[in-house]
Amino acid sequence: MQKLNLSQSLSQKLSPQQIQFIKLLQVPTAELDTRIEEELEINPALEEGKEEKEEATQDEYEDTYEEDMGSDDRDLNLDDYLDDEYGGYKMQGDGNYNSDEEDREIPISSQSSLHELLIQQLNYLKLDDRQRIIGQQLIGSIENDGYIRRDLEAIINDLAFSQNIESDIDEVEEILRKIQTFDPAGIASRNLQECLILQLERKEHPEDPIVQHALRIIHDCFEEFTKKHYSKIQRKCDLNEEEIKDAVNLITRLNPKPGGASDGLVRTQYVIPDFILTNNSGKLEISLNSKNAPELRISRSYADMFDAYDKSDKKDKKLKETVSFVKQKLDAAKWFIDAIKQRQNTLLRTMEAILQYQKEFFIDGDETNLRPMILKDIAEKIEMDISTVSRVANSKSIQTEFGVYPLKYFFSEGIATDSGEDVSNREVKSVLQAMVDAEDKKKPLSDDKLVKMLNKKGYNIARRTVAKYREQLQIPVARLRKEL
Question: Which residues lie below 8 Å from residue 208, measured CB to CB, with a gap of 6+?
């Protein structure tokens, strides 16, 4: 038996205009030009240039079209459209970055990739076709940082299945050793220990006692070296303190990632600030980067086309379809221009609120003057949603006389002091960094000692918080900071 039930539910829905604004708000300045060019290409009703005064037709076509064609301003579900296309207009640069998008946007210099350079060196060797294929398979298995982490047995299986070449460990290892003589030194290593050994063996003077001591440490005491147990190394290798110190200094100057941090391509990423701060005799002024204020307008010819329809026979089916297309393009152009303007307004309001909140920092650039500030503080100040402030803060930056800062740099939690005041956790991090920089590297400060020192300075902070801040500052634990 069928039953009818009534139920209520809440759901968040945004109009197409709101979705367009959200996407544009997240686009950083460096990508805005590209986004505008895309819209100009796909929408002939949108043009570059200042708006013309006689834009009355724009309002006329909206009323006329809704009478004849029916209103199409329906609410759209946010989840359905934020990561999709709407109305035939592809939306890109929405701030939800992934590595593929970043790779596509970052300028790439015209240099050979790591794999291409290795293949070139492989071709210089006197190898037969079989050996060359094995070498190419090995080079293809080298990861971005220069290591081969795949098991050689797996590579042998790949050769059998894809190249119909039956091989064995001895043959593959022989060719691998040839590849390990290529530049950069340490390439095609299977682990860090092998990488360091390969680099030491290729030193200009391998017979040098310091090089020999370093090789012995990596060969025989690698685990102790990684843990900085220098006293154990000294006993095991029968070296004095000075010999260990020289050898360790040599090892630490080697390259642990011979392939580089990227995919072997030399990349240059340009940081274009969204805001520019100027200090005119103590008066701070914020301006938007000129790239954030493009001159766009609705095409007069398209507006005239719609005006002509209003004066023609509205019963013509083909003409009606044509006008439907024109109306869609005009709407999209208007929405895009409005979204750009709203973006500019929101960016300025957000940045001005941050400027007022952190005025002391912007005057002298001293991070200890940063006040505790969270997204909610700015959202309440500009009377906007926290998510809007988050979108601005996560993808924008400001140029000051002290350097370029991402906006998220100015947001931090508060730490209570003995005086009852709250200070920014950035101030605490700055003090923590200064303590570590000034410590005796032979007896580095443990987290417990750092906590006590911070407490003496009036910062009420727990050990786990110190450990968290230390990790955020990329400061190793005390044992790994120890030096001879």
Answer: none
Write the DSSP assignment of 240-271 as a string of letters. -HHHHHHHHHHHHTS-S-TT-SSSS--B----
- For the stretch 111-161, pLDDT in tens is 457 888 888 888 888 888 888 898 898 998 898 888 998 888 888 888 888
Q: Which of 278, 272, 270 is nearest to 400 (CA)?
A: 278
Nearest-angstrom CA–CA distance, 190 and 180: 10
Distance (Å) of CA 89 to CA 77, 94, 104, 190, 329? 17, 13, 20, 48, 10
- Looking at residues 425-429, what average pLDDT do you find? 81
| pLDDT, tens only, 235-264 | 888 888 888 888 888 888 888 888 874 444
The CATH number given to 414-481 is 1.10.10.60
Residue 38: HSE in the Cβ half-sphere, 13 Å Cα cutoff: 13
What DSSP designation does 446 have?
P
Q: Where exactly are the structural domains of the chain?
A: 12-107+270-411, 114-252, 414-481
Q: How many Å apart are CA 362 and CA 370, to the nearest integer?
A: 9
- Torsions phi, psi of 272, nearest 5? -110, 110
Number of H helices, E strands in the chain: 23, 10
